[in-house]
Structure formats: structure tokens, C-alpha cells
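Issue: ligand-bound run for iron/sulfur cluster - logging full I/O for the record.

Environment: standard queue, default settings, no custom constraints.

Inputs:
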Amino acid sequence: MTIAQEKLNQIREQVKSYLDHRSASRALTAARQEVLEARIRRKLKEHDAVIVAHYYTSPEIQALAESTGGCVSDSLEMARFGRDHLARTLVVAGVRFMGETAKILTPGKRVLMPTLEATCSLDDGCPIEEFNRFCDAHPEREVVVYANTSAAVKARADWVVTSSIALDVAEYLAEHDKPFIWAPDKHLGEYVRRQTGADILLWDGACVVHEEFKAMGVRNLKHVYPEAAVLVHPESPQDVIELADYIGSTTQIINAAQKLPNMTFIVATDQGIFYKLQQAAPEKKFVIAPTAGHGATCRSCANCPWMAMNDLESLATVLDRDDNEILVAESVSKRALRPLNRMLSFAAEIRT
Ligand code: SF4
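Outputs:
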């Protein structure tokens, strides 16, 4: 077993214990929610701060980000929004690599996070020492890493990609006959390889949320909703991807739900996205793809446990205490900035 696989198994255990702890905790009352929201609004003004939230955070966090002039989006747009916004402080509601990316892109801004414990199984499953050895063993290959990695791993990379531009970058490299390493998500990497024919050497990492979607469960659900289109994020296993009517990043899934004629959708990604899906297509019905099944090890029910750590209590507390600041060593930051800027320029170019 590699260190990365061992780490992934530890992560699964942590996820289980976190979910047990979380299910034992108390839900907020409406009155408490109102108090917290008012406090957060006040503090955002005092700190000249704006919330940059991911689609997978709770509906309360997403609604607050929207109503206070912040953004709710995928990691690519979060990076762009944080870089371009005039606020002096970014409060990143997401997971740690998103805070690090914001800090690297805007070193002059303060970047706070509701919790510093919110990590990601892809990031944790790609430790820099092991990744360096992997890259050193294949010096003839370019290094492409997913945004879901530490600053140190990005600093080692030639390219950083998000799921929204993964295919475009892979196509570009394939056209230029450049073989490359892909890390850390093996499912997304395999999907990219099949779609582009690129020469890819995969790192063995996975998202603990998407990996639990079950093809059999999706097939069974299709019997219940025969008219439904299946929307799948490519971090899902290959057999689930094969059942998809549409495969794409979170933003692409939201756009597809708006454009496709179907009135019902089976969705294989974190169910935090339902807030935006429902907003984008209020007349349509969204059903989460099943995660339980034979051999299921995760009880996440398509809900990232680390994203769920971003709640109103922790958001209010970080603004009260003015702590949980994200810092990235300058030497790492400088090297990671290159592939991050490359990603943003590449994304801007393909959109023009
Ligand atoms: Fe990482 Fe998966 Fe959670 Fe996204 S949903 S932050 S990829 S563990």
C-alpha cells in the first residue's frame, strides 16, 4: 500500500468519526440563525471583508455570501473573484486549498477561513514528499495538478487545472505531443484520458464524496424517474460516468440543468449544489444520486464533511476573533503562482 493510499484510508476513518460527531450536534434555531447572520453582516463591514463561498457549502452560507456582495461558485471562479475584488479581507468558505489559492493570488489581502481543519481527501492524499518522488521518477512528463492540492504540490506543477478546464488543458497538451502526470484525482484523470487520448500517468487519489456514487443505485433510480437526465461530476467512478447524460464541473452542471429540456435530474455531485440548481431552475426537480450500496464505506450521503465545517457559528467566530488566517510561505507562493496564473490566463483565453 502506498503512503497516499494509507493516508486515504485514514481520511475515510476521520470522515466517519466527524459525521458521527456532527450528527450528534444541535441544529440552529431560526432565532439563533438571525442573530448570527446580523453579527456576520456587521463584522464583514468592519473588516472590509467579503465571503467567497463554494457551491458545496450549506444553503445558509451561500445565501449570506450572495446577499452581502460575495460570490458562490466553483474553485476557478472563487480564485478569480477573490483576486479581482477590492475588499481587503477574503473570508473563504470552502476547504483549505481554496484559502491557499486565494492567498497566493492576492498576497496583499488577508484571507480568513471559518475553520483551518477543513481539508480535502484529494489534497490529503497527495503529500508533497511522495509527489516529488513520483515527479522525479518521470522527468520527461509535464506535471498537471488539480486545484484540489496543497500550495506545495502546486509549486511543483507546470499546470494547475480545475474540472471546468481539465479537458481543454489536456487537449492542448495532447496536441503538442506532451505526455504528463495527472494528480491527484484518478477518476477525473481517467475521464480526461478517455476523452482526449492524452498520454497521462495517473496519481492514485480520489474524492471521498464522489467516489461513493454507485452505478447500481443510479440505474435503480432511473427506474423511478425514467424521464430524468443524469448529471455527473467527473470525479465520480467510471461506471457512474458511463450512465451520465451530461458530465461536467459544478458550474457546467448548473448550466446544463438550465438548458436541458428534462424536468427531473439525478445529480452525482455534492448536494450543496442543490441550492444553486434550484435557484437556476426553480421549476425542475433534483434528486441526489445514491451513495449507499454494496461495499459502501462512506455515509456522507454526497455531502463533503469538510465543506460542512463551514457553518454560521464558525463564520461568526472567525470574524469576531479575527483569526484563522491563511498564510503561505513566500518561496512556495511564488512558485505556485506561476501555474495558477497560467490556469487563469488559459481559462480567459478559451472563453474569448
Ligand atoms: Fe475534496 Fe471531495 Fe470534499 Fe471536494 S467534495 S473538497 S474534492 S473531499
